[in-house]
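Supplementary Methods. Inverse-folding protocol.

Structures were first reduced to a discrete structure-token string of length 444. This string, shown here, constituted the complete conditioning input.
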């Protein structure tokens, strides 16, 4: 079946929905615009972690980089624990209300930063990050399958690429904005804190630094509450994921399955999401610590996350204009994995700013991975679509585990060797999934 250009991007809702005839282009565009706004919020909140790592290490007086990487651990582990409960909740509330509640939970997580900053408690900061991750788990569990099946599954990567532009566009802005506010004159402040021998004076300086985070997160909480109300009152249609992602007649898979674990292409996809998010977070959030290891000063490396996200934005633009017209989702994933392998080798064999540049360029390799992996993994799950999507969202925990391993191992092993040892196997597995792992076995 072939689609027009408009249908490629937006499509009409698939059969089984309560609508008369095909949707107009305007009505098909509305969900994309609304979900695009949500992905902008995902990006703005998620990619603040790159700034929070050096900020909290300084403000909470953490001793090691490994401790600082608990920022990403707390945030991304929430996906692991909350994805399946989110799937169950969505069955009761519907996708639209689920997205609204996800925004409310994120707002509560942002407000926890206020007592965390006032007490300078790293544990409370991690609690706030975990709660934000809870809200995002609910949002992601609803929005990713929604945008995948709101139009033809063959062009899902194109629509998710549009979402990626919203996500990474916000991600470019958030570390710049947050760094300007909370890490202003960071080098001088760090030197002053290190040079201060009086305990009371040092505590005063650290308390003033921690207080810088309060106003930005109050603003974020207010915006999230407003967006939650807007989503609830929006024209966003509820989609029955099981019907929208049903199998073609005569090619039924889900009808012969008794549980979601009987879909090999999904299970392999969960692991693929795990390693993909791990390398994405390494390239985006760990790039500052990586640059610091070369002796690059904090006033410079606090902006490195934005460079990675800029290269990801370029990758998404390529995806929008090439998928599926010129290249299939699986081929785009293969090319991306090969580029990731080559750039990772470049990271290892170079030094200083050049090596950091290769890390930032990994954003280009990573850009089309989520847009390709997610629709390939949920393809033709039928009534198992919601729980399958939840398992994929659980795979986001790779962003918790892999950077934390980097933080611990780099303390005793050459950091470039650790980077290579963690990243290269991940890209090779993604290449395997793009080559054969995604293929759907026929029903028996």
């Amino acid at each position: 079946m072939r689609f027009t250009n408009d249908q490629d991007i937006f499509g009409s809702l698939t059969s089984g929905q309560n609508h008369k005839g095909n949707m107009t282009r305007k009505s098909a565009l509305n969900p994309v615009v609304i979900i695009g706004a949500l992905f902008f919020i995902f990006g703005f909140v998620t990619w603040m972690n790159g700034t929070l790592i050096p900020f909290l290490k300084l403000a909470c007086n953490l001793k090691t980089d490994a401790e600082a990487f608990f920022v990403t651990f707390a945030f991304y582990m929430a996906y692991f624990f909350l994805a399946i409960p989110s799937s169950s909740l969505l069955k009761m509330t519907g996708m639209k209300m689920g997205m609204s509640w996800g925004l409310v939970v994120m707002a509560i997580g942002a407000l926890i930063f206020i007592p965390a900053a006032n007490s300078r408690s790293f544990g409370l900061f991690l609690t706030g990050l975990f709660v934000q991750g809870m809200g995002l788990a609910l949002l992601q569990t609803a929005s990713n399958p929604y945008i995948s099946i709101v139009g033809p599954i063959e062009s899902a990567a194109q629509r998710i690429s549009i979402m990626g532009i919203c996500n990474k566009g916000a991600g470019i802005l958030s570390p710049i904005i947050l760094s300007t506010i909370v890490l202003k004159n960071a080098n001088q402040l760090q030197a002053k804190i290190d040079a201060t021998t009086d305990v009371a004076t040092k505590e005063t300086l650290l308390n003033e630094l921690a207080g810088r985070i309060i106003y930005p997160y109050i603003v974020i909480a207010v915006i999230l509450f407003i967006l939650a109300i807007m989503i609830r009152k929006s024209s966003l249609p509820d989609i029955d994921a099981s019907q929208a992602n049903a199998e073609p007649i005569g090619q039924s898979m889900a009808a012969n399955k008794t549980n979601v674990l009987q879909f090999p292409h999904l299970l392999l996809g969960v692991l693929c999401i795990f390693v993909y998010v791990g390398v994405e977070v390494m390239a985006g959030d760990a790039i500052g610590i990586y640059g610091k290891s070369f002796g690059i000063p904090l006033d410079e490396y606090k902006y490195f996350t934005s460079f990675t996200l800029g290269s990801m934005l370029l990758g998404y633009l390529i995806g929008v204009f090439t998928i599926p017209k010129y290249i299939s989702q699986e081929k785009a994933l293969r090319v991306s994995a090969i580029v990731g392998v080559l750039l990772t080798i470049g990271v290892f064999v170079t030094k200083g700013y050049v090596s950091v540049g290769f890390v930032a360029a990994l954003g280009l390799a990573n850009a089309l991975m989520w847009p390709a992996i997610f629709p390939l993994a949920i393809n033709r799950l039928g009534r198992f679509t919601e729980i399958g999507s939840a398992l994929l969202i659980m795979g986001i925990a790779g962003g918790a585990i892999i950077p934390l391993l980097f933080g611990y191992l780099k303390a005793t092993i050459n950091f470039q060797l650790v980077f290579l040892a963690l990243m290269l196997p991940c890209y090779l597995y993604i290449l395997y999934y793009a080559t054969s792992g995604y293929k759907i076995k026929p029903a028996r």
